[in-house]
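One-letter codes give the sequence; the fold follows as tokens. Both lines appear below.
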Amino acid sequence: MSNSKRLTALEVARLTKPGAYGDGRGLMLLVKSSGTRSWILRISYNGKRRDFGLGGYPAIPLSKAREIAEEYRQAIREGRDPLAHKFKKPERQTFRDAAEATLTGLAGDKLGEKTISRMRARLEMHAYPKLGRLEVQSIDADVLAEALRPIWTAKPETARRVRQYIIRVLRFARPDGHLLEGALAKAVTDRLPAQKDGEHHAAMPYAELPAFMAKLSAKESKGSLALRFTILNAARSGETRGATWSEIDREKAVWEIPASRMKMRKAHRVPLSPEALAVVEMAAKFRRPDSDLLFPSDAGTPLSDMTLTKILRDMNLPYRVHGMRSTFADWRADETDYPEEIAEAALAHEVPDDVKRAYRRTDFFDRRRELMRDWAAFCMSETAPEATQAHADHPELQPIPFKREKAAPKRKKGIAVSVPGQAAIDFSE
């Protein structure tokens, strides 16, 4: 973009394509592939061209970026150090602005892009709704505790991390920030109910999951198929055990769970990956004329919860079936750049904030389909690929071969892996 053309506030708000967009005289908006946007000033300093970071957008709007850029230029003209402006903190600052400034300061050498993106997503979901507009100086233990209360016992690990992020922002933004870390964390804990670690479901580390799924795929029982289906869809055990053929649309690759069977009493759509569809086709050999259940017991009733638990016990594993949902959440957070709200929608979790719940009008179905395909690819990445009838019936979901890497594979958009079929199994109904 030519230096003669200046940006407008509307243009800045609409710029999402990665690149550098000039406003003139060295001021540019840098848009990264992750979606983050920040201001830089490219200017000659001490005889060399230098790039100075001015802060992130939208915390720093266009007008403010121009003001800061001019302060840098003036400092250079007067022979002063322009870097003194980088750490200058406004006297009155909202928590949201302070958080964005903190994330901008941490980006690059201190923390990677993926980590910054994950921190921002958690702050947007669990901190900004209650704290975003408050001035940083007004935030104390009582205010912080109330912001964390909705997730403190429901999502203990997430709550502790969000608390850590909030205190880090306050440490950066407040003059007394260096005094807050230890005392404020303890004061917040004192104001909230105890987190009962004993009630957590033991979760398998996600790095162990592909090898486990390879062993599970060698089993042909109804219980093993039900467990595979549960894991591939990050579903609750009861949702799988009560699943019926009438809920499954194999042509559209969707599992429609009615509200009456959901924990939150809200209907839930599950996008089925090719691997999950393959399990459905394998389950056809257990279909009964007197039951519509996808995984019926020998009596035609839903499988018991112990049926799935026993599989783990027989394999001498200390994990719980429900803990596999935590395995999915940990993999999403550590190995992908999918936003947390996409994973929360996939897990059918209730949005804790009333305002955010009122404005959310989407279930992120298309993004969840991508997420669940990538999750299935990871789950089955140690299982030898082999075409199945499910893949043939759904060419639009046709996966491509997935090559297992030494380390736990990072998410790569559009990559999936097929599920091994069992040549001796008749997939017809």
Summary: Confidence is low (pLDDT under 50) at residues 86-90, 352-359, 386-429. The two ends are 61 Å apart (CA to CA). Residues 192 and 259 are 31 Å apart (CA to CA). The domain at 206-397 is CATH 1.10.443.10 (hpI Integrase; Chain A).
